[in-house]
Amino acid sequence: MDTSGLGALIAGAVLCFAGVRSLNLAVFGSGFAVGWLITEPFGATLLTALIVAVAAAVVALVLARVVFRAALFFVGGLAGAVIGAKVFGLLQPEDGSVVLLVLFVAATGFIGGLVTQRFHATALAVVCALGGAALILSGLARAFPEALGFLRDPGGDWEAVLTTAIWIVLAALGWSVQRGSGRGGLRPAGPQTRPTPQ
Predict the structure, then answer these.
(1) What average pLDDT values come out for the chain (198 residues) when binned by 10 residues?
(2) What are the transmembrane regions (predicted)?
(3) For residue 47, how many other CB atoms are within 10 A of its CB?
(4) What DSSP state is assigned to residue 126?
(5) Contact indicator for 53, 135 with CB cutoff of 8 Å
(6) Packing angle, helices 6-18 and 23-39, rounded to 10
(7) What does the pLDDT look like over 24-78, one tens digit per residue?
(8) pTM confidence score
(9) Are 127 and 115 in contact (CB under 8 A)?
(10) How far is CA 35 from CA 155, 178, 187, 195, in A?
């Protein structure tokens, strides 16, 4: 077992299964995930990936503090960028264009932000689950490169399809856990109804 993927695995599990519980946790996890996943198509070393991931997480936290009013948009945008980075890695596993990567990640980040801003906690649970699941797969691929390396860099169509299926199932499980435990977390905006006393 290669321990280089454990950090990504742990951060991904927290984001996937508990991201909706805390905006700070979701921001940090999403920032870490974006930083980690954008280094993958370029075959970055562990140290480079870790430095970029931690820097992205810190920048994400600082930006979230500055843009507090748009925090849901920001968190959804970060998680959407994670999803975009994973999809890009599945579609262009090696030697992808940096410009195309940046445009694709920015577009999915913007869409993730809009959806989260509109649908609040429900969308946040979905994008955190998808983003966390993507990071879990990358962590597993780094930890067990011989057996699970295809989760990071699919070698063919069937490996890309299998990776996508595993990603979706893991994200669905994460979403299910978050929705079940999300009752004490973020609440969707809107009128709150109270039971009438009898």
Answers:
(1) 69 79 78 82 81 91 77 83 85 75 90 86 84 87 87 83 92 88 47 48
(2) 46-64, 71-91, 97-115, 122-140, 160-177
(3) 9
(4) H
(5) no
(6) 140
(7) 787 888 888 888 878 877 777 888 888 998 999 999 888 887 776 677 888 888 8
(8) 0.69
(9) yes
(10) 23, 23, 28, 45
The DSSP-derived string for 153-182 is: S--SHHHHHHHHHHHHHHHHHHHHHHHHHG
CA distance linking residue 64 with residue 61, whole number of Å:
5
Q: Quickly tell me which residue has 């955190």 as its tokens.
A: 128
The two tokens of residue 78 are 């970060």
> In the chain, what are the helix, strand and coil shares in percent, each to the nearest 5?
85, 0, 15
Q: Which residue has the tokens 């700070």?
A: 24
Task: Give the largest Cα separation in the chain, rounded.
Answer: 67
- Length of the chain in terms of residues written: 198
Helix (H, G, I), strand (E, B) or coil at 82: helix
Q: Which residues contact 65 (CB under 8 A, 6 or more apart)?
A: none
